Amino acid sequence: MRDLRSVRECNEIVTMANLVVVGGGLAGVCCAITAAREGLSVVLVQDRPVLGGNSSSEVRLWVLGATSHMGNNNRWAREGGVIDEILVENMWRNPEGNPVIFDSVVLEKVRIEERITLLLNTSVHELRMKDRQTIAAVRAFNSQNQTTYHLESPLFVDASGDGILGFLAGAEFLMGCEARSEFDEPLAPNQPEHKLLGHSIYFYSKDAGRPVTYVPPAFALNDITRIPRYRDFRVSDTGCRLWWLEYGGNLDTVTATEEIKWELWAIAYGVWNYIKNSGDFPEAENLTLEWMGSIPGKRESRRFLGDVVITQNDIVSQTSFQDAVAYGGWAIDLHPSDGIFSAEPGCTQWHAKGVYQIPYRAMYSRNVANLFLAGRIISASHIAFGSTRVMATCGHGAQSVGMAAALCTESRLLPRDLLQPSRMNTLQQRLLAAGQHIPGVRATDSANLARMATITASSSLQLDHFPSSEEVSEPDIPVALLLPAQAGKLPATTLYARIDLPTTVRVELWTSSRRGNTTPDEFLEAVEIRVESGACVAVRAQFDSVLEFPMHVFLIVAPFAHGAMLLSRAQSPGVLMVSQRMNAAVAKSPVQTPPPGSGVDTFAFWLPARRPGARLLAATFHPPIPAYEPEMVVNGFSRPWCGTNAWAPAYTDEHPWLRLQWNEPQSLRRITLTFDTDYDHPMESVLLGHPERIMPGCIRSLRITTAEGDVLAHIMENHQTRFSLKLPTPIETKAITIEVLARGEAPPAIFEVSCR
After folding, report:
1. Angle at CA 583, nearest 5°, toward 581 and 584?
2. What is the phi/psi pair of residue 736, to 5°?
3. 599: left (phi over 0), alpha (psi -120 to 50) or beta
4. Rounded to 5°, angle at Cα 96 from 92 and 99
């Protein structure tokens, strides 16, 4: 193991590293991988036999974050960087959502990093302080090999979920629900309460092909009517997705966790007994109980205090932070502390109009100088925690911690030292260069030689025409084309409809009140078009409004009598058709209508359909919209955000290429490309299946050549978002050409090119 010194004496191993990460959930994994890739020696300590925490095969909860099952208005919001690598890789290997395969994907990602020493089945139980504010070392014990590990490092990360490291070090923390007055949060109670989000347990069933008898264990819950919502139970041979089998919110979810587990086992086995033996579910006759969770998934325990506390107002108002390093977008998702024994709904979810920034100051302890915070224990109020706690958000934020640890190591700094403006800018730019997305923060790294190049292409896609597939939209539901627009007037747009009798079609132009959002909450104007009957009737809409800057706009078609809009199977990066409806998994109405005084916004949900059902509105644009020019690949954004931010070739271009050319030869050591793996797709890791392994717009095969004709790379198979070519020795050239050799059914897009 490079950069580590180990001495084995009497079943004790002493290890010194640049960084010790405690906790091997997705937060700890993403943090450790990020730090190791930046050159740090890392020890990753996990108290379970597998990695992944709640996403592992021990618990089997799907990974989600800002995309929220595509049930909110956060378009193209899937988290970037390491967590994106994991989800995209799992999609390619495991579209069926097998949790055991997901385990192997996560384990492989850690194992291939040579600078990571992974300690599984190893629990931290003791630490030594250098002084009252600095951790010097931690001690951990592995019950499998009966070995104690003494781990020394200048920097530590607590990604343990319950905050064992912070707790032992005396880091300040919160637990329970703060009073409304504490952080001026309208959703909070008038008085502080010891009410937490509890644990949940999953089980799987499968069809055995013949009748199966079930005899419950003696400890199973006998009286199913103790569960007020017992009539809501359903049967599925793919497993019961009963996240609301929840308990323990009124207890200490750390010290009472074993008590909570036993109660959940009683509940889960009792529920299965009810399904099998009550007679109310004849469709369960051939089902057998295939798997029961051995440990519950834990939601909430300690939350540690940093130099700032994220609150409800930061989420709803989408507060801008100078030290933004990550983002969230899950709803403020609060559960009754009585869990399954509550008569209330299993959760209430209040969404914001867009994603919100997460500040770096929430990611280190305010009173333990060398302790970073990662995962669900970051500095947030109980109300805000309802959103920040989900796994993709935790993993994405933890990447920021791994990068911050690298900067601290390089300059012998402590976490708080990175708040100095130039250092914070360096941290943000390093994160963006590594594939992270920070909403509203543009990559401006002058070290990227691609910014100095003249960029040309074989062709550029123009948004001119989405041909009709002769399918029609659902009646009585507003539909919209979510479209990238340049500053100025929107080109005239002709939509197409199937009209049975003469009628009037109303088309409205809406934008978002906040840059980067994709919630249509700012009305600009409307036109009403009288049309005659026909199988394909042109509906021409011309708007006079002038847009101040590039943005996404909504062309909304209101429901009308005697017809429906024609659809198209065309696909274009950064363009979607959405409709006003709800996703029952994360909302209860097409319009979010919170109670008065809640501090939450009222707005409509505009959701796209998942593939293979996704469509666009058939349309023609006059003149075409130049949304995919070659220079987009160096504009500082690597996903759709206020525009497409991508180059894509024309539909008819059979041999697409993108070329970067310099006036003088440049010395290149690394070339990194960012492809289109559909950031709007949530890519849930388990339980849900997916119809495809590779995203339709992802470049699947490519070749990179120099001006002299030398082939630098010939990639036969690609499915990942980012491809990084590290040359063994620098080469000098005046140009490189990226040739697209194989593609999917959507235009092959490149969001970013970096040359160093």
Report:
1. 120
2. -130, 150
3. left
4. 95
Can you count the helices (H) and strands (E) in the chain? 10, 44
SS3 state of residue 440: coil
The CATH label, of 3.50.50.60, 3.40.50.300, 1.10.443.10, 3.40.50.10240, for the domain at 5-176+355-433 is 3.50.50.60
- Cβ atoms of 517 and 511 closer than 8 Å: no
User: Which residue, chain included where needed, has tokens 């988290």?
Assistant: 79
State the CB neighbour count (10 A cutoff) for residue 143.
10
Residues linked to residue 675 through DSSP beta bridges, in sequence order: 750
User: Phi and psi at residue 106, in whole multiples of 5°?
Assistant: -65, -45
pTM exceeds 0.85, yes or no: yes
CA angle 639, 642, 643 (to 5 degrees): 65
Can you name the residues that pair with 526 across neighbouring β-strands?
508
What is the SS3 assignment for 105? helix
CB burial readout 90-119, b (16+ within 10 A) else e: bbbbbbebbbeebbbbbbebbeebebbbbb
Rounded (10°) CA dihedral 28, 34, 36, 37: 160
pLDDT of residue 234: 86
Backbone φ, ψ for residue 109 (5° rounding): -60, -35
Q: Are 686 and 56 in contact (CB under 8 A)?
A: no
CATH architecture of 449-460+628-755: Sandwich (2.60)
pLDDT digits (tens, 9 = 90+) for 390-404: 999 999 999 999 999
Nearest to 678 by CA among 752, 581, 575, 605: 575
CB atoms within 10 A of CB 76: 23
The helix (H) or strand (E) run that includes residue 739 is strand 722-742
As a three-state string, the secondary structure of 393-426 is HHHHHHHHHHHHHHHHHHHCCCHHHHHCHHHHHH
Listed in order, strand segments (DSSP E) in 104-155 are 116-119, 122-131, 134-142, 147-152
Q: Do residues 63 and 39 lie in contact, with contact meaning Cβ atoms separated by under 8 Å?
A: no
Q: Where are the domains of the chain?
A: 5-176+355-433, 199-298, 449-460+628-755, 463-622
Using DSSP, state whether 56 is helix, strand or coil. Answer: coil
Q: 709-748: per-residue pLDDT in tens?
A: 999 999 999 999 999 999 999 999 999 999 999 999 999 9
Here the tokens at position 213 are 């008898």
DSSP string, 194-232: -----EE--EEEEE-SS-------TTS---GGGSTTGGG
Q: What is the pLDDT of residues 588-630, one digit of tens each?
A: 999 999 999 999 999 999 999 999 999 999 999 999 999 999 9
